[in-house]
Amino acid sequence: MGAPSIPPLVLASASPRRLDLLRQVGLEPAEIDPADIDETPGPGEAPRGYALRMAKAKLAAVACRHPGAVVLAADSVVVCGRRILPKAETEQEARACLKLLSGRRHRVLGGIAVGRPDGTVRARLVETVVRFKRLETAELDDYLRCGEWRGKAGGYAIQGRAARFIAFVSGSYSNVVGLPLFETMALLKAAQ
Fold first, then answer.
1. Helix/strand/coil for 170
2. How is the chain split into domains, by residue range?
3. Per the residue annotation, which of 20, 33, 38, 75 is the catalytic one?
4. Whole-prediction pTM
């Protein structure tokens, strides 16, 4: 008898950062199939519940297209107080997010969901605390000109030029980039 075959891994995300993080730990998805779902928070929805709901909804949208595969879905949410910050699409949105984060602590919530071929779903929420230095107007303007904020939750990329604004990180750094690797690897191992 041969060794049992390991099901293929499908990444339910279009994020190049998530793919890079998986490659960093030696995983190459067999396929990338982004979930195309409505990501609008529900009225009064708590940030923690929202992050987990999004990860599970992305998993559900993609898993049905890949029977026999292990599917990994994730969502990153930047939260200041109880306020969920948007994925900045305009300079105005990014400026508003960064002004709000300036000189303050905020949380990055990473929802991860892994679906097995038998339909079993395991999910986890990871929280990282980040503190920004107080941003000067010139720094903020310079960062906005570089454009790396576009499409990023909270209007910044910790692994890019915004690294110079980060005074403190408590918890998973890779969670802030887009995928908490330690917790993801544990979920994937349990899915085998």
1. strand
2. 9-190
3. 75
4. 0.93
> 20 catalytic, yes or no?
no
DSSP 48-97: HHHHHHHHHHHHHHHHTT-TTSEEEEEEEEEEETTEEPPB--SHHHHHHH
Q: Classify domain 9-190 by CATH architecture.
A: Alpha-Beta Complex (3.90)
Q: Which of 83, 109, 106, 117 has the alpha carbon at shortest distance from 175?
A: 109
Output the CA–CA distances (angstroms, integers) from residue 25 to 5, 108, 141, 185, in the order listed. 21, 21, 35, 9
pLDDT digits (tens, 9 = 90+) for 14-51: 999 999 999 999 999 999 999 999 999 999 899 999 99
